[in-house]
Amino acid sequence: MAIVAINMVPLGMGPSVSKYVAAAEKVIVNRPGIKRELGPMFTTLEGDLDEIIQAIREMQEAVFETGVDRVITTIKIDDRRDKKATMQEKLASVNAKLAE
Amino acid sequence: MAIVAINMVPLGMGPSVSKYVAAAEKVIVNRPGIKRELGPMFTTLEGDLDEIIQAIREMQEAVFETGVDRVITTIKIDDRRDKKATMQEKLASVNAKLAE
Amino acid sequence: MAIVAINMVPLGMGPSVSKYVAAAEKVIVNRPGIKRELGPMFTTLEGDLDEIIQAIREMQEAVFETGVDRVITTIKIDDRRDKKATMQEKLASVNAKLAE
Amino acid sequence: MAIVAINMVPLGMGPSVSKYVAAAEKVIVNRPGIKRELGPMFTTLEGDLDEIIQAIREMQEAVFETGVDRVITTIKIDDRRDKKATMQEKLASVNAKLAE
Q1: Which residues in chain B land under pLDDT 50?
Q2: D7, D11, D41: which to substitute to probe chain A, counting the most A Cβ within 10 Å?
Q3: Which of A72, A74, B17, B76 could form a disulfide with A7 if both were Cys (CB 3.0 to 4.6 A apart)?
Q4: Rounded to 10 degrees, what is the CA torsion of A53, A58, A59, A64?
Q5: Which residues of chain D have a CB within 8 Å of the CB of C5?
Q6: What is the pLDDT of residues A8-63, one digit of tens each?
Q7: CA B49, C98, D68: angle at the middle one, nearest 5?
């Protein structure tokens, strides 16, 4: 189980890029086995790392299919093997300590 | 106005780091002039870029004050000058296109 | 052809991590079809994107095999389809403009 | 002493961006107190963290001054307080272990 944050920036398509972000998001919305949280800078995914990486590759190709020539993709992977950490548990753990 | 995602990883303090993340978050919770969204991988901030950078420096020092020797900080800045883009507007723009 | 920067941070193994970085680098040194440039913060790879992603997965597993429980991996992909851009061409292009 | 990797992506200016990268680099070339290493994905800087952050802000403004409306900046900071780690020492430490 891994938690993966992803950001894609299409180059050469004007300062507004939500249309291209949406094209990528359509690949991952309701994708079986992968939880998704859309954020203002990153979309965060939770699930099997190799399935997530496969989905990211499809998200990239979906952006190229809109006519974009160059895409800068930033990925941050939190892969933990000593325990199964979910997005919710990470948030709850920090919030609990903030409440102390 | 900028939108800034930040992630801090303290090195050498065990695989669980929420205690150190919380120490950094305490600096930014309810900080005047800066909107904050805690996420599973990044905390996203919205406000004046230089005020946000000042807050990030204080967040870093708060982590060092817990006894950490080394901190890896990842920052992603979306600075737009043609229009005032908020976190909510970015999300709404993508969600609207997803609903089409 | 893509250019990919990668950084791996093992958590819970002390502030010095070069031993774990080296374990990952051993996977990619002299790997056929992938050019490699070791930098102070990122290792930059050049080649077929899917081959590079496969290599990155092996690099991650090599770090886990040293006994690490948690690895934070940051990846930045520059994937360009309008022309074949190499690491050297990107550097030469910037340096040429710096010399103007 | 910190080591900081920085990448800037101007949005809306075509797929080729070396002209804008060069505008930012001009701010940091031969800057007193800051060592610089230009890489294919990141420029890596070494020096006092607050001086580096000030330089980064000037690099961002230099890109806006070329007429760009939106800039995505990715920054990765390695700040170590238990010993003074330079770019060269980090590389030497990994290369030494690769040679074992």
Answers
A1: none
A2: D11
A3: A74
A4: 130
A5: 7, 39-42
A6: 999 988 899 999 999 999 999 999 999 999 999 999 999 999 999 999 999 999 99
A7: 35
Residue A4 confidence (pLDDT): 98
CA distance A71 to A61: 10
B74 and D CB contact within 8 Å: yes
CATH numeric code, A2-99: 3.30.70.930
| Domain map (residue ranges) of chain B | 2-98
As beta bridge partners, residue B43 has B6, B38
User: What pLDDT, in 10s, does the model give residues D36-93?
Assistant: 999 999 999 999 999 999 999 999 999 999 999 999 999 999 999 999 899 999 999 9
| Interacting residues of A15 by C-beta distance below 8 A, sequence separation 6+ | B80, B82, D11, D12, D69, D70
CB nearest C9 (choices: B14, B69, B72) = B72
C2-98 fold: Alpha-Beta Plaits (3.30.70)
Contacts for B30 with CB less than 8 Å, ≥ 6 apart: none
User: Closest chain D residue to A71 measured between Cα atoms?
Assistant: D15
Alpha-helical (H) ranges within A5-100 are 18-28, 49-64, 87-99
CB contact under 8 A, C9 and B13: no
pLDDT one-digit tens code per residue, D12-25: 888 999 999 999 99
